[in-house]
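During the no-cost extension, the postdoctoral fellow (Dr. R.K.) reprocessed legacy sequence entries with the updated structure-token encoder. One reprocessed record is reproduced below for audit purposes.
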Amino acid sequence: MDYLAATSSNTKKKKKIHILYFIFVSCYVNKNKDFPPEHTIAALLYRMESDAAMCRLTVLFQFKINAGQGSKLIKAKDIKQLAEYRLIPLGIQLMQLLYVRECDQKRPQNDLRYLLPVVISFLEFLLNKERFNDKEFQSKVNALFPYVAKLVQCQNQEIRSLVSSLLQKRIKQSLK
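Re-encoded structure tokens follow.
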């Protein structure tokens, strides 16, 4: 019974936070009527979504690269493995989101302007052998390849350039 009460209480708190957040966004947009049309609630939500993803990526990159000494409860090696465990699915999700928005939904480049830097950051991480060594990359290449290959169809030149480099420098070597 206590567990159900605690769960119900947490759910109520989360709902309140979501409602307050929506009210904040609505007030922000309504106060600033002189915004150009691209500053709609949808654009703000895209930006918040991308900012949150970039924040998660940055934290996971840091833990992956420099787990420090660890702690009494968790070793540095475990921190790195946990970061990698979370990092790759997040990157796949971001690549898939970019592909769906650009290629399937045919969204204009303006709608993608917040998501592009996040995906670019992830692709640059995959290309960096110091941050993501060959052994680690080799273990993830089968999961990454289908999503990286889809990005070839994207219009953004920087994304296509990074995908080309990734295919030539990392994936080609892994498939040998």
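The longest helix spans residues 2-31. The two ends are 57 Å apart (CA to CA). The remaining legacy entries will be reprocessed before the final report is submitted.
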